[in-house]
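Slack export, channel: ligand-projects

TW: morning all. Re-posting the request from yesterday since it got buried. We need the structure predicted with the small molecule present, not the apo form. The ligand is copper (II) ion; the SMILES is in the block with the sequence. No rush, but it would help planning for next week.
GE: picking it up
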Amino acid sequence: MLVNRKLILAHFWFAFAVFGVALTLGAWQMFIRSPIGTWLSNPELYYRSLTAHGTVMGYVFPTLVAMGFGYAISESALEQRLVGVRWAWAGFWLIVAGSIMAVIPIALGRASVLYTFYPPLIGNVFYYLGVVLVVVGSWIWVALMSINLRVWRKAHPGAPVPLAMFANVAGSYLWAWTAVGAALELLLQIIPVAAGLKNTIDAGLARIFFSWTLHAIVYFWLMPTYIAYYTIVPRAIGGRVYSDSMARISFILFLVVAMPIGMHHTFADPQVGAGFKFIHSAFTALVALPTLLTVFTICASVEIAARLRGGRGLFGWVRALPWDNPMMLALAFSFVMLGFGGAGGLINMSYQLDASIHNTQWITGHFHLIFGGAIVIMYFAIAYDLWPHLTGRELIDIRLIRTQLWLWFVGMVVTTFPWHWVGILGMPRRMAYFDFGDPAIAPQALSVTLSAIGGFILLTSGILFLVILARGMRAPQTEAGPYRFSLAVHQPVTVPVALNTHALWVALMIALTITNYGYPILNLALSEGTSVPAVYVGAQ
Amino acid sequence: MSVEQSHASAEVAARVERRWTIVAVIIIVMMALLAAFAGIHRATMPQPRVETIDPSRIHLSGEFVESNLGSVLEANGTVTVRAIGQQYSFTPACIVVPADTPITLRATSADVVHGILIQGTNVNTMLVPGYVSEQLMRFTKTGDYLMPCQEFCSFGHEGMWGKVKVIDKADFASRAKGGGRLSCVGQ
Ligand SMILES: [Cu+2]
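GE: finished. pasting the full token output, ligand included:
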């Protein structure tokens, strides 16, 4: 039973509102850098917009979705009133305050450092402090999830922790540790320089700290999506989870191997030798495992639903699936985009292939396909599924919901596929405009135009999403009943301790991070003379 | 469903799961082995050594002084290219190199993080101030290649495009006869 509906709704509404703004900025950026909109004479506005888009989409939006969904899971899966509601509100308001604090210097053009903030380019100190507040707010959520699970365990000694909560807490621990990299970079390196206490900084070390956060954060974004795959989709389409333990193993594997791999972002960097890069490459290959297990388990769970509905044959059951059910549609789209994005990811993680596409538009295409595509479409699905339980009103626009999901899928494909293509041609990313008059660049004009069109399809879909949710706030009242999660074919009666607790896996996660990052960080931190003068944004 | 049936179905499930897990593990081991093989054979390799340099002094002394930038034919027949990235240009803005020759690119940044990417090739490296980037390259076709900066380096990033001119090996040798550093300038 969801008691703290206001708390959860506040998280979702703020998340989706800032998402709408960032989406509009994204569409505008694609428009003005395409040949159809080359009227912008001041590229500086482009980088302001890009910084805001990345900061919101990377830090604020997914964090709030994970938090809101996490509180809902805690209350409904554990069937227990949320412990620490006041703290939860405090965390929420910290994030609101942090977001505002970060956005003001961006809007003033004082923090156009992009969300990746790579020194020695340094923005206004309030931008960084705002990001820190967002992270601190989210850490309160991490603590609350852990505490709520502990309270439940005391009341239910030895009982299997419900899968949704087990995964939710794994996701929160992953985030807590993942954020440490950027936090160290901000607190030890950037903020002292941004505040004017120091004027030199080790740019190489900063990039390594940031890589600690930059990759694993994707798996944090992915967690709500995977929780939805396992614990919402099978129930919503009338099936069962094929294997409860396979699900637990997948979440544990994410916790352990998603962390110590970020240096694959620095394959082309001069400040780390080849050895540690290779180790990170091999570990990145390992992260494919939980996803491959998930693809199998979810396809099998969906097949169960199809066979229960009378589906027959080796592949004939696919036709028996409830394709008019938005959840089924969202899952299918998400899987297709995850497939393409994942294949691209294997190329990025390759020690050698990376050189062909490093820092090109391919990378933008890749992570928009994974995050904007596979992940965000399931955020939509989560919202649609939860909404009646949060508002006490039914969502009646089922046809509109299907249209919205279709538009998002088509828009994402139209946006990202051309990006992959021009990336292979060597088009660099993060450029405010291109000189399409140059014969060497002219052939890329068509691809860039296609992407811009995709951007507007996405914007239409995003607006439709907000409209559907807003209309849901005033639909006829209904009794949605308790919020339930999917049951497994064989519901666990007892679960081995290792699959029911996180301590061992958190220890392993930390140990692996230390072995994979400890030496390179120490080596860089102790080497003399690698600090360089800071370059302040806007100071000429 | 009887207890026996449910037991049998659990066994089937476990068997299928095990098979899928094995397939997944094999795929991943293959990927890691392929990467190791290609890496050891140096198809392309991330830079093995870490070299540091003081960006505030590169113009004054050492290998990155202005007069030492550009291409040079070494005694052993290879070519070394030295370049600097700074907001918002490369020096030299156009690099000239011979085809079919092993080339070592050595580059660094004078201010913020930049990147060197030569379109249509696998040459792609970051320029991080304080560190020297080194990359081996070899061109098989003559012609002009665009060389954009691939990392955001503040407001003029989109204007930071260099060029690489790959010329015939013999041509390059004759131009390099007098010693000194070559660039497209003065051609
Ligand atoms: Cu640059």
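GE: first-pass observations. The mean pLDDT of chain A is 91. Chain A has one domain: 5-530.
TW: perfect, thank you
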